[in-house]
Amino acid sequence: MSSFxxxxxxxxxxxxxxxxxxxxxxxxxxxxTPPWVDEEQVLTTRSGxxxxxxSARQQEQGNSSxxxxxxxxxxxxxxxxxxxxxxxxxxxxxxxTQRRRRQNEETILVARQQQQTISKIRGWxxxxxxxxxxxxxxxxxxxxxxxxxxxxxxxxxxxxxxxxTLSYRNGKLxxxxxxxxxxxxxxxxxxxxxIWKDVREQLKxxxxxxxxxxxxGSKATRFIDVxxxxxxxxxxxxxxxxxxxxxxxxxxxxWRLVKKGEMKSHTSDIKPSLTPQNKITRLxxxxxxxxxxxxGGNLIFDAMYDVVHIDxxxxxxxxxxxxxxxxxxxxxxxxxxxxxxxxxxxxxxAAVARPRYDEDGVVLFDGKIGIFPFIxxxxxxxxxxxxxxxxxxxxxxxxxxxxVVKQCLLEKVIPAIxxxxxxxxxxxIWIQQDNAKPHISPKDLDFxxxxxxxxxxxxxxxxxxxxxxxxxxxxxxxxxIQTLQHKKSxxxxxxxxxxxxxxxDEIDNEKLKFVWVSLHACMNEILRxxxxxxxxxPHVGKKRLDRVQLLENKVKPxxxx
Length: 561
What we know:
The protein is about 45% helix and about 10% strand. The strands form 3 sheets. A 5-stranded mixed sheet has the order 5-2-1-8-9. Strands 3-4 form a two-stranded antiparallel sheet. Strands 6-7 form a two-stranded antiparallel sheet. It has helices spanning about 25, 40-80, 85-130, 155-165, 175-185, 190-205, 240-245, 250-260, 275-290, 400-420, 445-450, 470-485, 495-505, 510-530, 540-545, and strands spanning about 305-315, 345-350, 355, 365, 370-375, 375-380, 390-395, 430-435, 455-460. By secondary structure, it is an alpha/beta fold.
């Protein structure tokens, strides 16, 4: 079986019906063919298709004659042999005949497909020649651009149907008329053929010709009342699935609304409950921090350079949940512990003050007093695989009592303040603590004795109750330490203490300065909310203000409505 292919770069097309198949019209070169089309290539393609068709037809005729001769010989031989042998031979001959016929049909089918490809190329070449008239060097290969499918208007389709009706004779159109219409209206031959199919069926059925577009356009966008979200209870909109069910919409639609910004997710944190007296105390506290020098003009907050904030916090050996970014084929980390409820932890007491700079921006005092763990050493009672009996072990102090806090304050915090406090700064210092029960009283005699020695005059003050937003450590500095701490691995209490200490030292003093500015912004919000805490931590553009040197005490108190 002889066959050939033309690599046109186009997808295979459906074969034409036998009634419409005419190879001479399909491969003839158009009159308006531009000079850059290779005529020899077209003629070679035409001769190849013609020879393939002729060869297939001759082979089919030869197969038919040979089949007849075999049948005659089979009938003569069948008279001499038994009936069973004759039936088997006849069956084999029928199978060979059918196989050859299928091969011939495949050859003709390939030729028809190539014929239709050449016809489509003709339409493209003619359209390019009549519209652009561009010259291409003859030594470059022919590049057929991909024409975007045009959607005909109803008026154009009506004009095409009328032209077809006028050219309709004996159930057929005149030869080559479909190609002429495709070039005239700038569409593919398949589009014109589809219209012709509808016109022909309507003519045969005796109906009024109607080739109007069946495409009605996309559906109108459904109006979604976003305000309906407010009528849904908060407990019924904790996830997209529940929210979509409440709105009666698909989850994908709700997700698109979130992406557009018409809805947003919010993480709600539990804040301390405030009594009316607590709110009054908070207001008095904030008002007392207004600089006395600004009372006659624009009010600004006091810089609070002489205030040291102290507080306690537990640091854990590891987190229960940690997020990593992995490759698709990367092995997932496997983390284990004895119990998620009892992860090893150590409590620390930290002390910070506001950093100080000179006129050129050089750091005079970084504001970091120190961070001190609540731990103790004890000898091992018995030997184990990890250590021998009598080895000193470091263990956390489980019960933080008033005596423990007092000892840490007198033996660690106050000596550290005296050692790191700037020499040219005032010795009058206020140490601010919260109202936790283990904290000592500001009038403790032992504290007063140590705090008022060595030229210092320190006083212990308590911040308003239920007000962690008025303490630098709770406001953001502890969170910064914890973030750096979890970037370093630790497997024991000693390693945890070392990691937390290094994280405290590595924090840039710029972050500590920004937290103090956030404290001023929170004090401003407290005044707006009349002592309440129903506000998010405001963003004041601290880095931007720092670049233009407008960061210092520029948050002004504003009264609520």
